[in-house]
Design brief:
- By secondary structure, this protein is mainly alpha-helical.
- The chain is built from nine helices and three strands, in the order αααβββαααααα.
- Strand 1 and strand 2 (65-68) form a beta hairpin.
- Helix 2 (29-44) packs across helix 5 (116-133).
- The mean pLDDT is 85.
Length: 191
Amino acid sequence: VKRPDEPPARRRGITSEEATAIVLKLNDPAGSQVKAAFLIAIETGMRAGEILSLSWDHVALDRRVVTLPRTKNGDSRQVPLSSVAANVIESLSTVPAIGADGKREKIADKLFTITGATLDTLFRRARDTAAVDLPSCADVRFHDARGQAIRKFVAKGLGVYEICSVVGHRDPKSVMFYFRVTAEDIAKRLD
């Protein structure tokens, strides 16, 4: 019996227009946390679960670094923050936590008070609403932000091993799934 072939890796990117359209649909209080998580994902390449698990003692805004004590791979890693990501995280420090009863509580120890299921539901709802005006949004997934971050790192000139270090890939081949540089881009760099 032959094992079925693996499906091809997802190679979907997010355009800035799609990201903006989705972000604009995340305006309610819970949506603002999804918006912040999405922006952080686009800027850092962190997974949704890594973002939602962040607590304030893992954040060093003065150094623009967050520490992930345990990732999907079981490792810990430090993630550098762009100025945009640092500003988004800093804006979260003034948001009070909302308790289960809907009342405001003290500032939370964690950056985010929503669950992964809530993030997924609200993100898909915003994406679907954005797709009415921009149909290409219809198949965007939150995880596509990770690929977008990797493409931004490549465009900024980070090397493969630096990118692996930032996003937590152990095998540089994994980064190649996201590496999409056109021949025209390379030609421009040759001059």
